[in-house]
Amino acid sequence: MTDLTPAGRGRTKLAARCRAATEAPAFGMVVFCVILLNAGLMGAETYSGLAEEYRQFLRAAEDGCLALFTLEMLLRLGAHADRPKAFFRDPWNLFDLAIVASAFVPLVRENTTVLRLLRLARVLRTARFLPHLRILLVAVGRSLPGTASFLFVGALVLYVYAMVGWVCFADSDPQHFGSVGRAGLTLFLLTTLDGLTDAVRAGLEISRLSILYYASYALLASFVLVNVLIGVVLNSLDEAREMEAEASRDAKAGSPGAAGPDVRERIATARRALDEIEAGLAAPGGHPAARRLEPSHTGG
Q1: How far is 272 from 293, CA to CA, in rounded Å?
Q2: Alpha helices, DSSP H only, in the chain?
Q3: Who has greater pLDDT, 256 or 89?
Q4: What angle do CA 234, 237, 242 make, to 5 degrees?
Q5: Alpha carbon of 28 to those of 67, 146, 169, 227, 248: distances in Å?
Q6: Cα gap 36→245, rounded to integer Å
Q7: % of the chain residues with pLDDT over 70
Q8: Is the dihedral of CA 58, 60, 65, 70 positive or negative?
């Protein structure tokens, strides 16, 4: 009797081996160190004398880093050999694959500026190995819609105050309020409260009512709007933490060893039943149940 091997068994074994390698703590630490080494090499290339003297060494080190990154991506792809779609559903996998694969595109390799920018983008891959940094990046991404609304409101407030400042101070202080553009730039710099004391002092020389102008702008732009932005970011940070926790729970639930005790017990029971049936079929008397159905003969 021929033993038929399932077609996907080879991919399952490959995925299991690659998954064991990629999930090992040493694997993540090695990749993390290679990313930092790549960043250090980029910094060393900014020194012209050092880059000229050790050009061959820096080039070889960069090629070594690229080879390790390529090996990492091959292992990650192999870890999803039994479920390829799951690899492409992870945004971090797509980001890593795009960064590594772009180094092999001919037009990109020939463009030094683009290649350096892509090498610099590899530093962001450290977020995969730093959960807190990953949460912060996700929070920043989720806060972009709220930040856009904040920027619109902030630009509206800045424009209104710039027009008021131009009307009130254009003749007395043309250097700072001679046009709506200059007034907007002056107020934008005052948003950080840097130079506010000098601006208030100069305004008091023009009119004592200028204190109301600067005080209301400082309260509205530097306190109210900034606190609103902080609230948007904190809300996005909480959402990012929840997403990370949910993704962690899903990963644990989907891992091979995450099956509950009831499921494992049922699988073990089914295996024992199959073993008993196979042993009964292999016995000379046939199936045990068939032997129980045969009539018993007694002497008489």
Answers
A1: 22
A2: 9-22, 25-45, 48-53, 55-79, 84-89, 91-102, 106-110, 112-121, 131-142, 144-169, 174-177, 180-190, 196-206, 210-217, 225-254, 261-282, 288-293
A3: 89
A4: 135
A5: 16, 34, 60, 38, 17
A6: 27
A7: 83
A8: positive
